[in-house]
Amino acid sequence: MDPNDFIHLLVEIRDVQREHLEEYRRVTKESLEMQRKATQEQFRLGRLYRRVVFLGAILLAAGIIMILLALGALGALGIFRFRGFELHRRLPSGSDKIPP
User: Fold this and answer.
1) Angle, CA of 8, 10 and 12, to the nearest 5°
2) 3-state secondary structure the chain
3) Which listed site, 20, 62, 87, 98, has its alpha carbon 20 to 30 Å from 1?
4) Contact, 80 vs 87, CB < 8 A?
Protein backbone atom coordinates (compact mmCIF):
# COMPACT_ATOMS: atom_id res chain seq x y z
CA MET A 1 0.00 0.00 0.00
CA ASP A 2 1.28 3.40 -0.96
CA PRO A 3 2.03 5.75 2.01
CA ASN A 4 -0.09 8.50 0.41
CA ASP A 5 -3.07 6.14 0.20
CA PHE A 6 -2.56 5.24 3.83
CA ILE A 7 -2.48 8.93 4.88
CA HIS A 8 -5.50 9.63 2.70
CA LEU A 9 -7.38 6.76 4.39
CA LEU A 10 -6.48 8.07 7.85
CA VAL A 11 -7.65 11.57 6.89
CA GLU A 12 -10.98 10.16 5.69
CA ILE A 13 -11.40 8.20 8.94
CA ARG A 14 -10.65 11.33 10.95
CA ASP A 15 -13.16 13.39 8.93
CA VAL A 16 -15.87 10.77 9.38
CA GLN A 17 -15.19 10.65 13.13
CA ARG A 18 -15.46 14.44 13.33
CA GLU A 19 -18.76 14.38 11.46
CA HIS A 20 -19.99 11.65 13.75
CA LEU A 21 -18.94 13.63 16.82
CA GLU A 22 -20.72 16.75 15.53
CA GLU A 23 -23.88 14.77 14.88
CA TYR A 24 -23.66 13.26 18.38
CA ARG A 25 -23.30 16.74 19.91
CA ARG A 26 -26.26 18.03 17.91
CA VAL A 27 -28.50 15.11 18.90
CA THR A 28 -27.43 15.36 22.55
CA LYS A 29 -28.13 19.10 22.61
CA GLU A 30 -31.55 18.54 21.03
CA SER A 31 -32.34 15.76 23.50
CA LEU A 32 -31.41 17.94 26.48
CA GLU A 33 -33.58 20.76 25.15
CA MET A 34 -36.54 18.40 24.78
CA GLN A 35 -36.00 17.15 28.34
CA ARG A 36 -35.94 20.73 29.64
CA LYS A 37 -39.19 21.51 27.84
CA ALA A 38 -40.81 18.33 29.18
CA THR A 39 -39.70 19.17 32.73
CA GLN A 40 -41.10 22.69 32.44
CA GLU A 41 -44.37 21.29 31.12
CA GLN A 42 -44.57 18.84 34.02
CA PHE A 43 -44.07 21.66 36.53
CA ARG A 44 -46.71 23.77 34.77
CA LEU A 45 -49.22 20.92 34.75
CA GLY A 46 -48.39 20.13 38.38
CA ARG A 47 -49.26 23.70 39.39
CA LEU A 48 -52.47 23.51 37.36
CA TYR A 49 -53.37 20.18 38.99
CA ARG A 50 -52.83 21.62 42.49
CA ARG A 51 -55.05 24.59 41.64
CA VAL A 52 -57.82 22.36 40.29
CA VAL A 53 -57.69 20.09 43.35
CA PHE A 54 -57.71 23.11 45.69
CA LEU A 55 -60.69 24.63 43.85
CA GLY A 56 -62.51 21.28 43.96
CA ALA A 57 -61.92 21.03 47.71
CA ILE A 58 -63.29 24.55 48.22
CA LEU A 59 -66.38 23.79 46.12
CA LEU A 60 -66.95 20.52 47.97
CA ALA A 61 -66.64 22.26 51.34
CA ALA A 62 -69.02 25.00 50.19
CA GLY A 63 -71.53 22.39 49.03
CA ILE A 64 -71.39 20.54 52.34
CA ILE A 65 -71.81 23.80 54.25
CA MET A 66 -74.82 24.74 52.10
CA ILE A 67 -76.43 21.35 52.70
CA LEU A 68 -75.87 21.61 56.44
CA LEU A 69 -77.26 25.14 56.50
CA ALA A 70 -80.31 24.03 54.50
CA LEU A 71 -80.93 21.12 56.86
CA GLY A 72 -80.44 23.42 59.85
CA ALA A 73 -82.95 25.87 58.42
CA LEU A 74 -85.45 23.05 57.92
CA GLY A 75 -84.87 21.95 61.50
CA ALA A 76 -85.40 25.50 62.77
CA LEU A 77 -88.68 25.67 60.87
CA GLY A 78 -89.83 22.51 62.60
CA ILE A 79 -90.02 20.45 59.45
CA PHE A 80 -87.26 18.04 60.48
CA ARG A 81 -85.62 17.11 63.76
CA PHE A 82 -82.38 15.25 64.24
CA ARG A 83 -81.67 12.30 66.53
CA GLY A 84 -78.10 11.16 66.22
CA PHE A 85 -77.44 10.44 62.59
CA GLU A 86 -81.02 9.57 61.76
CA LEU A 87 -83.26 12.15 60.13
CA HIS A 88 -86.91 11.99 61.20
CA ARG A 89 -89.94 13.89 59.99
CA ARG A 90 -92.08 15.48 62.70
CA LEU A 91 -95.63 14.38 62.90
CA PRO A 92 -98.16 17.19 62.54
CA SER A 93 -100.44 15.75 65.23
CA GLY A 94 -97.75 16.14 67.91
CA SER A 95 -97.57 12.39 68.44
CA ASP A 96 -94.43 10.94 69.99
CA LYS A 97 -94.25 8.12 67.49
CA ILE A 98 -91.57 8.62 64.89
CA PRO A 99 -92.18 6.96 61.55
CA PRO A 100 -89.48 4.69 60.18
Assistant:
1) 70
2) CCHHHHHHHHHHHHHHHHHHHHHHHHHHHHHHHHHHHHHHHHHHHHHHHHHHHHHHHHHHHHHHHHHHHHHHHHHHCCCEEEECCEEEECCCCCCCCCCC
3) 20
4) yes
Angle, alpha carbons 35-39-45 (nearest 5°): 140
Question: What's the CA angle centered on 47, arms 44 and 52, to 5 degrees?
Answer: 125
Which is nearest to 81 in space by CA: 69, 93, 91? Answer: 91
pLDDT digits (tens, 9 = 90+) for 85-94: 555 555 555 5
**pLDDT band with cut points at 50, 70 and 90 for residue 41:** very high
Q: Is the pTM of this model over 0.70?
A: no
